[in-house]
Structure formats: C-alpha cells, structure tokens
Amino acid sequence: MISKTKLSQRAKGKGNGELVETIIACRKNEKWLEVGKLISVSRRRRISLNLDEIDRESKAGEIVVVPGKVLSQGELTKKIKLVALNFSNTSEEKLKKAKTDYSTIKDEIKKNPDAKGLRILR
Question: DSSP assignment, residue 73?
C-alpha cells in the first residue's frame, strides 16, 4: 500500500487540475486510498476500459469503479452505477441512452465517503 505522503508527492507532478483534486480527495479518505493509488500512476499506465469489458466483469446492481477512462466500444446490458476518472464523449452518450447512472470519482467520494459496495475494476 502506498503512503499518504507518497500520494501527495505524485499529485504534485500532475498537470491536470481535476486529477490533482481527485487524488487529494482520495488521500483525505482512508477508504478511497486504493483508488487514489491507481489513478496517481503515469498516464500510460492508467487503466482504460471499454463498455463491453465493464459489462463482462460486473454484476447487476453493483457500483463499479474504473480508476481511469471509460471508452465507448460495446454496450452495457446490466443496470450498474459506473464511477470513473473520466469518460469519452461517445461513452457518455451511450450511458445516457442506456439510462445508466454514472459519475466521476471526485463526485462519488462526496456521495459515498465510506466506499460501501464498491468494486474496483483493473
């Protein structure tokens, strides 16, 4: 497990303001430290998942966290809540069309500080 100090150091090296705010929010909340560790890696090591991969790995009713970007290939057939660092424009359109609940990690930390019922996809 990465320390809070190391997480702060990683956040300083980032140029994206929203990413830095998200890492800091994860650092302040013990339950979200694992997600903070996963999003603080270099951009080329950050996770990107397509909708069909998320659909395959998840179960109906779950809150699924993608510590990276959600891409638009495929469709979601299950009713899940999707939480990610960011979403491609096309994936947002598909999620709206499928009436799937989705939000960013920063917003979800505010709504669910205890991280109850989360499943992190890697």
Answer: S
